[in-house]
Amino acid sequence: MNIIWLGHAGFRIEIGNQVLLLDPWFSGNPVFPAERRAEAVAGATAIFVSHGHGDHSADAIAVAKELGIPVYGIAEFMGWWAAKEGIETVGFNKGGTVTLGDVAVTMVNATHSSSVDSPDGPIYAGTESGYMIAGEGKTIYFSGDTDVMADMGVFEALHQPDIGILCAGGHYTMDMRRAAFAAKTFFNFSTVIPCHYRTFPALEQSAELMKAELAGVDVIEPEVLTPISL
Questions:
Q1: What is the DSSP-derived secondary structure letter of residue 70?
Q2: Using an 8 Å Cβ cutoff, are 222 and 230 in contact?
Q3: What confidence score (pLDDT) does residue 160 get?
Q4: In the structure, what pLDDT confidence band is assigned to residue 143 with cuts at 50, 70 and 90?
Q5: Which residues, in sequence order, are CB contacts of 77 under 8 Å at separation 6+?
């Protein structure tokens, strides 16, 4: 499989016979090279959105229309988008699993907030989530935006993820120390990829603390559009 960072919290995951876009945000993303957008979305088969905030969902509608592919996410948000935007959506909920070819994706809990902007202020966008993505004999935990949760112990017991893609920038989510605590307390990852950092000055800029805290785990700081092959 290839895990390709799209900057901030966005990823392109090439797994099994699928190409999944997670939380795609290109327009206005200060760490994504706009001229490489076509490369980032080429051949995508589905989009997964963890919650409504613009730095996670802003480009999902445009990409879905451009490629004619479905967007998956929390039921209320997907129902609203389908009615408002005329795109194909698949709404499901926490504990639910959708199967796409050789890949199974289970929605799991996160603790954050979820809304979309409007001229009248924020609009509720269902609740926030993460995903367990299983394929090629491995499972990826994509945390979405979250803090540490006791729920993570349940995730490990049920899914035993090998790879953790963990938000770790602080301020809006758990920081490097808290993400490392989550990884070593609740999981048995072989690989951890931090995200939701380096985008803005308010966020952490390095994963050195995480690397120091997770001895024996391969902590990979991603580079935009550079495949991590696992």
A1: -
A2: no
A3: 98
A4: very high
A5: 49, 51, 52, 91, 114, 125, 126
Q: Using the predicted structure, report yes or no on whether residue 91 has a pLDDT greater than 90.
A: yes
CA atoms within 13 A on the CB side of 168: 27
* Residue 230, beta-bridge partner list: none
Structure token digits, residue 24: 């795609």
Quote the tokens at residue 27: 């327009």
Please give the pLDDT value at position 12: 98
Helix (H) or strand (E) run with residue 219 in it: strand 218-219
Q: Please say if the pLDDT value at position 55 is more than 90.
A: no
User: 2-221 domain in CATH 3.60.15.10?
Assistant: yes
Distance between CA atoms of residues 214 and 128, nearest Å = 27
Domain assignments of the chain as residue spans, ordered by start:
2-221
Gap between the Cα atoms of 59 and 5, Å rounded: 15
CA dihedral 85→86→92→94, nearest 10 degrees, is: -10
> Over the stretch 3-42, which tens digit does the pLDDT of each residue have?
999 999 999 999 999 999 999 999 999 999 999 999 999 9
User: To which residue do tokens 């090629």 refer?
Assistant: 136
Residue type, 98: V
Angle between helices 75-85 and 60-67 (to 10 degrees): 60
Q: How far apart are CA 121 and CA 104, in angstroms?
A: 36
Instruction: Assess contact for 174 and 80: CB atoms under 8 A.
Output: no
